[in-house]
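It is worth pausing here to work through a concrete case rather than discussing structure prediction in the abstract. The textbook approach is simple: state the sequence, then state the predicted structure, then interpret. We follow exactly that order.
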Amino acid sequence: MRLYAADELPYHQVPTPFHMVGTSDAHFNDGYFIALYAQDWYFFAGLRLHPNGNVIDGWASVAHNNRQVVVRASRALRPRYDELAVGPVRLTIVEPMQRVRLTVEDNPSGVELDVELTTQGPPFVEDRYQHVKFGAVINDTIRYTTVCRATGRGRAMGHELLIDEWHAMRDHSWGIRSSMGVPTKLSGTDRTDEESFNRALRLWVPFEAGDHTGFVNTHEDPDGQPLDFEGRLDWPDGRSVALTGMSHELTYLPGTQWPTGGSIVLDGEDGVVRKYELRLAGTPADVQAGGYYRGWRDGLGPGVYRGAEAQEIDDYDVTPGGERTGPPHVPVRHRLGPTEFPMHMVGPDGAAGMAHFEHSIRGEYRPHGLG
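Step two, the predicted structure:
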């Protein structure tokens, strides 16, 4: 039975070494999502361990000037379980909860990075999310998110970039996700109301505006009614304000589901209502480039064993207005289109900043006639 350096520490939760998790569910995974953005540039990357599939996979991608380029990589997790690296992508935890280093080495996609992300505020721990289908738990996850600044260098699409205090974010999530790992089909004849999946709009927004950082996460039903909400504002002096509600007025590129700007209004537990203006800062990105939701060329998602080492490159046009965009090998009917939108933000006091505006619509969303 293999042991790793982490096994020397007295933090085990189950009677197995760290690399053997406390469930046999093939959909269990643990990993990171990182993004950095400035006017006209959006980089994002990730790494994820799938212990019960013996897989670590990841990606690095850039969206710029209506084009998206990506390198995806996968390898056998063991014996290099404790190395947070796959293909050209590597993550180093420099100072836990404060600083990480993301490097993307030379590779055929032309996307390269060497940046350090520094946390700008305390992490926000989201509510645990559980989703039951026909009596079985198919999603059971938790996530924390931090607002960051990124410094270093980048290269993409023939441009050499100095990354000097770019706005950034990173999240770390773990648990069971039905969309990852070898697909399993769960069927039945009757689902209870509690098992229904009624999310039409998702907004997930870490941001920095002037002297404070913030985070909001909400889902709405097809009529625009909130199904859940959580959020918080944080200041450098340690002051925090829990958020109790949110409203939004978004504008869209005609004929698309691309938000181009608008505003969000946040209700604070302190009784203050704060309004933030938004404006799209450049080309948004789709997560299928990173392998999510059938994004790999085999038509499957992350967490599937693809051999000792595997790598794929995509380079495609994401100009809005035609058919839904996505990696060329993904059938149009399965494409999600862009979901990650870099936004300029102006806070209630007029101070400028940026937001990582994750926006997706599933099915019909009647307030804007979308879907």
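Step three, interpretation. The chain has one domain: 5-368. The two ends are 51 Å apart (CA to CA).
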